[in-house]
Amino acid sequence: PKDGPYQVIISIPEEGENPQDHITNHWIDGGLRDTTIIASPKMPGDSKTWTDVEGLTAVMLTLRDVSETYAIDFDRVFLGGRVRGGESAVAIANMFPSRFAGAFSWAGDAGEGIPPENLKHMPIFISGGGARATDFVERAKAAGVESITLDPSGGESEIIGWMGSVKRNSYPDSFS
């Protein structure tokens, strides 16, 4: 593109939601759609497997397909989703913290069972989270991780604003 490579959002749909419907129904900001590639993987039928090999494969193949087709900014690739999709996105981002600029959980209670220590260089945005998300933020702060934002009422515009302030640090000063 004439203005440089595109930002990318890999957005995992809610359980049982068609990926195309997910994008059409939830990513409605016209300005975002003009400047960002939004892709939604077809996840396995059972959401309990979304952080296992089948789900990881769906997410990473989607990223590969997008990167092979379009000029993308690898420092502005975000992983997120709604409800169970968002919870899975945060868990997957924790497994691959060098791959994504940030991860978000929209209308989900992300963080259960995720060790926050791996996210020192990975900004996380959680909207609509409950007790599990609050516990995750508290565990992260205790571990010295300050990159997690909890916004219980956040929606599309808050996520877009957050993404505008985040960029992947390809060369962090330290790995601690």
Features:
176 residues; alpha/beta; 6-stranded parallel β-sheet; 36% helix; globular
Number of helical segments? 6
Q: Termini, distance in Å?
A: 37 Å
Total strand segments: 6
Sheet of most strands: 6 strands, parallel
Question: Taking Cα atoms only, what radius of gyration do you get, to the nearest Å?
Answer: 15 Å
What is the strand arrangement across the widest sheet? 2-1-3-4-5-6
How helix-rich are the residues, as a percent range?
A: 25-40%
Mind sketching the topology for me?
Elements: E1 6-12, H1 19-26, H2 30-35, E2 36-39, H3 53-69, E3 72-82, H4 84-95, E4 102-106, E5 124-127, H5 131-142, E6 148-151, H6 156-164
Parallel strand pairs: 1-2, 1-3, 3-4, 4-5, 5-6
Could you please describe the fold and organization of this structure?
The chain is α/β, with parallel strands linked by helices and 176 residues long. It is built from six helices and six strands, in the order E-H-H-E-H-E-H-E-E-H-E-H. Strands 2-1-3-4-5-6 form a six-stranded parallel beta sheet, sandwiched between helices. The longest helix is centred in the middle third of the chain and has 17 residues. The mean pLDDT is 93.
Summarize this entry quickly.
The chain has 176 residues and is of the alpha/beta class. The protein has six helices and six strands.
